[in-house]
Amino acid sequence: MINALHPRILGYLGRALSLELSAVQQYMTQASLVALWGEQEAAQRFRNETVEEMQHAEKIVKRMLESGVVPSASQLRPVSIASDLVGLLKQNIDFEADLISHYSEAVLFCRSIGDQSNIDFFQDLFNDEKQHGTELSQWLHELKPSQPQTSIQRASF
After folding, report:
1. 90 inside domain
2. What b/e sequence results for 78-90 when a residue is b if at least 16 CB atoms lie within 10 Å of its CB, and e otherwise?
3. Nearest CA-CA partner of 53 in 25, 80, 33
4. What range defines the domain where residue 129 resides?
């Protein structure tokens, strides 16, 4: 069992769980949406993101349980959708930026109290999300030249 955690670290873990489960919900929904559009490759990429975010959530749950805390996601974000793949990717890049910011803040706090174990924990999540953000940006960059300036509206909710 990990030593008792500072209350703010517990807050960072709880918020992280909410964000990661929100990401799972978002990517899972988007995978289904783009599959309906017939974009199976994009659907698979979103499914892969769903799995990665679920693994992050599981890692956080494990950390909380090891600390004697019952995990609970306090609030999931609503799913963000768009009428085309470019719009979805832009929204996801923004979402990843929120995750990156959260983990960066958590790392800084852990440094301020000298909690190396949690510095490492949050830094690993930060690195993973930074990589996700980079991959999404690259995917968007690859799509943009081939996408017309005015895209067909496929879905509006």
Report:
1. yes
2. eebbbebbeebbb
3. 25
4. 8-144
pLDDT (average), residues 123-149: 87
- Identify the CATH number of the domain in which residue 123 sits: 1.20.1260.10
pLDDT for 152 equals 46
Q: How confident is the model at residue 151 (pLDDT cuts 50, 70, 90)?
A: very low
Q: DSSP states of 111-136 as a string?
A: HHHT-HHHHHHHHHHHHHHHHHHHHH
pLDDT value at 149 more than 80: no
Q: State residue 5's pLDDT score.
A: 84
Q: 36-58 burial, b if ≥16 CB within 10 A, otherwise e?
A: eeebeebbebbbebbebbbebbe
First to last CA, the chain: 46
- Whether pLDDT at 67 is above 70: yes
Contact at 8 Å (CB) between 24 and 50?
yes
Q: How many CB atoms lie within 10 A of CB 107?
A: 21
Check if the beta carbon of residue 110 is closer than 8 Å to that of residue 124: no
- The residues near 60 (Cβ < 8 Å, ≥ 6 apart) are 13, 16, 17, 20, 71, 125
